[in-house]
Amino acid sequence: MDTTSDSQSSSDAVEDVLQDQKAAAKSAASSAKAFISGGFGGICAVLTGHPFDLIKTRLQTAKPGAYNGAIDAVKKALVKDGVTGLYRGVVPPLLGVTPIFAVSFWGYDLGQKCVVALTPDRTSPQFSTAEYAVAGFISAIPQTFVAAPVERAKVLLQIQGQAGGEVKYKGVLDVVRGLYREGGIRSIFRGTGATLARDGPGSAAYFAGYEITKKALIPAGSSPSDLNLGAVIFAGGMAGVCMWSIAIPPDCNFKVLKSRIQTAPTGTYTGIIDCARKTIAADGVAALWKGFGPAMARAFPANAATFLGVEASRKALDKLF
């Protein structure tokens, strides 16, 4: 009996098991870091971008003639509620920001793993632009099921009380209770299809734009971890601009329709196509582009803050585990 050979085979088997365990632990740690850093980055995004988002939502849902433009909407918000009025409705995204952004960045990490798994014969660990985009699109799928109800609650809080309207809800939990009484779970998740149709291509452009910009800023002979904060901020801002530049028509139009579907009384629209038809009939095609200015103004600073928060927290987490 060749005991030496048997011993070697046993040793190799143990080594393989240990390698698999290390790979699994590394993968789990990577997912956990992506989840936590994504949540922190989302908080940074909300605090930076919420005033822009509030003005955009009011422009998208207001009756014709209510505002002369974004500047007029800001002035009226400040006169009526002061500076704090620009943060009306901020509680829902802050409460939901950790799961939404955490799931998004966790989904992006998962998307990258899927790309690697689907290309076992790859010769380079570096991703192409298309592969970054695929991973980004995958990130939008789990994110949507968290984002849709949170955004529905947010826009309902943002628009109440404008133009002398009724203040119906006291907070996010009151919104959720009211929506459930009106139409059950379906009412809470109204607008999910429109959210996914918007966020799929948007996320693909978002993450691909960030990775490509970051790669271009890396000095020769350096690694991504060597990038300074200025480069991270610029790459993050460009990620937001890329998202809008590539997905302007569907993104802007779907946001208008999604906001109207989510804020309209139950039964107003049978779906996104019905909403588009009625919106165009009532306000013209230009109605689909309402809020475009504030959205573009928000794109750079909010997303720069997002990736700055993500990268800073990720470095801190790398030191912990």
Automatic annotation (TrEMBL):
Keywords: Membrane, Mitochondrion, Repeat, Transmembrane, Transmembrane helix, Transport. Solcar repeats lie at residues 29-114, 127-216, 227-316. Pfam families: Mito_carr. It is a multi-pass membrane protein. Signal peptide: none annotated. It is found in: Mitochondrion membrane. One of its GO terms (biological process) is mitochondrial transport. The keyword Cell wall biogenesis/degradation does not apply. Belongs to the mitochondrial carrier (TC 2.A.29) family. This is Mitochondrial carrier. It comes from Sanghuangporus baumii (Phellinus baumii).
